[in-house]
Amino acid sequence: MIRNIVLVTNEINPYRKSFYDRVYDYCHSIGVTFTVLLMTKVEHGYNWNYEEVKSDYAILMQGRHFTYPIVNHLNGEVVKYLKEIQPDIVVMAGSYFFYTNWLVIAQRKKLHYPIYFWSETHFQEKRNYASWKLKVREFIRRFIYQKFEGFWYSGKLSREMIEHYAKKDAKYHFVPNLIDCQTYSSTTQELRKKRDNLRKKWEIPDGNTVFITPARLAWVKGIHTFVELLKQVDDVNKVTMLVPGMGPDKEMIENTIKKTNLDVRLLGYQQQNIVMELYAIADFFVLPSLSDPNPLTCIEALWCGLPLLVSKHVGNYPEVIENGQNGYVFDYTKTTEAVGLITKLLHSSVEWKHKASRCSLLIASQYYAPEKVVKRLVDDMIKENL
């Protein structure tokens, strides 16, 4: 009988808390205890407030934290908590390089628990490691992945990568990012009734097509690269691109924009209610990432009923886009084709936009309904370990 499930992760961030809450609630409803063991309050380089996301089911472990040569954590207390809780199933999240996760692996035979690893990484991600470092990481990844009984994967691309390293009889569970779908869907529908007034509020020029790109202002999000691409599009003077978000590369992105005549607006951090306004006035969602394993914003866009344009480096593109039906995937190395896709969106008919909107909402309900995902995940893991 399965009584205890433990998730070991580096942090609870705001966009994951809703998922953890739902897992906890469902486990509680079937008599299973769900505990989250945290390595740190907030991961290095991020600035969300731990006090806003901490929960009764989560335990913050004491430990040492490192930022060089890579971000890492060593929480010796994880051994104590695993012995106290006596988990029937353990799920590891974060990096397979975390020392704390190595301690979890080291205890598995002594405490007799299976380990599932939550991985979102995929081969399309751009890596800046030297070749010898990549070879070392590849060796370590394969060695560690062979220790896991199963995996949580975020989509087709992440599963393909896992299968390259995992043992043949590993079990797989699709675990996409999830959001409060009712809030996004219903709120956006209501706000669209005020769309004209909202466009005036945000000073959108009459007749302009609005792109929304909610993203950190970081190199990996590709905003600067997309701006260079956008310059080559005819009628680009009829485009307004809204970018809510903060990040370390704001100045670099601003300088790129200043060299153009494009209406690209870096709006800084915005509260959720304001972001919802931006989704309501947007015509298209754009995510031009250079490396992005499993972005939550794509799911937000689906529930808001928007057509999408994303780069091939967005890890969940096979799940969120039916090519030509609710959007397109572009490749930076094929500039002419990418410019053509942007142009195609700008000249798309009202009828196509309505069909694309319905398609996005259908995909959202099929793959990203929180209750369905959580119930299936927990039930399947329990069945595998009875």
Structural description of this entry:
- It contains 16 helices and 15 strands.
- It is an alpha/beta fold.
- The protein has 2 domains: 4-178 and 369-384, Glycogen Phosphorylase B (Rossmann fold); 181-367, Rossmann fold (3-Layer(aba) Sandwich), CATH 3.40.50.
- The protein has a 7-stranded parallel β-sheet with strand order 3-2-1-6-7-8-9, with helices on both faces.
- Helix 13 links the parallel strand 14 (308-311) and strand 15.
- The longest helix is centred in the last third of the chain and has 18 residues, at 350-367.
- 38% of the residues are buried.
List keywords for this structure.
globular, 386 residues, Rossmann fold, seven-stranded parallel sheet, alpha/beta, 2 domains
Shape: globular
CATH fold annotation of the largest domain: Rossmann fold
CATH first level of the largest domain: Alpha Beta
- Domain tally: 2
Number of helices: 16
Radius of gyration: 22 Å
Instruction: Give start-end ranges of low-pLDDT stretches.
Output: none
Number of strand elements: 15
The CATH architecture of the largest domain would be 3-Layer(aba) Sandwich
N→C terminal distance? 6 Å
Identify the quaternary structure here. Answer: single chain
Question: Strands across the major sheet, in which order?
Answer: 3-2-1-6-7-8-9
CATH superfamily of the largest domain, by name, is: Glycogen Phosphorylase B
- Secondary-structure content class: alpha/beta
Largest sheet: 7 strands, parallel
Helix content: 40-55%
